[in-house]
């Protein structure tokens, strides 16, 4: 039965490429959230014609949602002949901005030399298209299967997933008894299984000062200088300490197997309140940075925060008039599905069957929508697996290989069969 499914997927390679190109032509740029509804409706209408029950769910009240840019998600479900487990393929339809440096139309969906080019080709409309073809081929070749297959196109993953998977999980779309197994076709390379991700703590730190005339700075207190002391302490103490921390998590690339922190932004003073290029004649009374701290399974959130606050509290003793405020922006705990869980076992069997070798198990350096499925939906049998080379994501001339999509679709269909029937079939 799997051989017939594989042959069917092979015969639909051109359709798979065309579907990917069509999806790319919807410029679903986030922010602000363009073309979400027409893209979701395109997916829904295709699957409805193939017998799926289709539902559109708007993430009402989530960040960015409004009548101009509604957070429209699509969920399609195909019930088998008899009851059983439900396998859900979830892909995000939003993409980042195109940026500069393209040699091809980023939203042209160009098919050339065995590749499909465009923003989102790799991350992750190629994976979405592969999951659709895999599910359709499986249903055509296995009309009497037990259980159910779901496919969703969700929004806002690139900005945290709050209007997409997080909202859907809160509504019960990613929890038993509705769903039992989830595969997210993110581009982690076709022979890799991504078991989870590092944790993330985003926070804003503000140092306080006192405004005064810039010609008499001794009458004020510069918040920027205070922030300079913070950054100096981070450089001398925190960054070296983070670099010494290692994890058992198989994070890729190698450098991400350590704790890391990025200074996302810095702003101090009133310059931006004036016309560009004109300075403010004031001593700045506020300076803010945003930190992006990625932490490991071996670290607690309390430990991660204490490493920062201990430096800030010490500076309060060392520097006259030093004061700060800190607020959390986002917290995601690290997560890792074990290799022997049903979904990674099934996908691993598919990789061995299609490629003739064992999979590589990896952890993502950043987070993706698995975090919401585990945290809100309480469903932990979830991995990321899909076509595409991770290093191409968000770059100019992004592409996905057609053969890679075909082979990944075969792996998905093989894994689907195991999850629905419990064992590989000839």
TrEMBL record:
Keywords: Cobalt, Hydrolase, Metal-binding, Zinc. PANTHER family: ACETYLORNITHINE DEACETYLASE, ARGE_DAPE-RELATED DEACYLASE. Belongs to the peptidase M20A family. Residues 196-314 form the Peptidase M20 dimerisation domain. This is Succinyl-diaminopimelate desuccinylase. Gene3D superfamilies: 3.30.70.360, Zn peptidases. It holds the Pfam family M20_dimer. GO terms for molecular function: hydrolase activity; metal ion binding. It comes from the Bacteria. It comes from Mesorhizobium australicum. Coiled coil: none annotated. The keyword Zinc applies. The keyword Zinc applies. Transmembrane segments: none annotated. InterPro entries: ArgE/DapE, Bact_exopeptidase_dim_dom, Peptidase_M20, Peptidase_M20_dimer, Peptidase_M20A. SUPFAM superfamilies: Bacterial exopeptidase dimerisation domain, Zn-dependent exopeptidases. Its cofactor is Co(2+); Zn(2+).
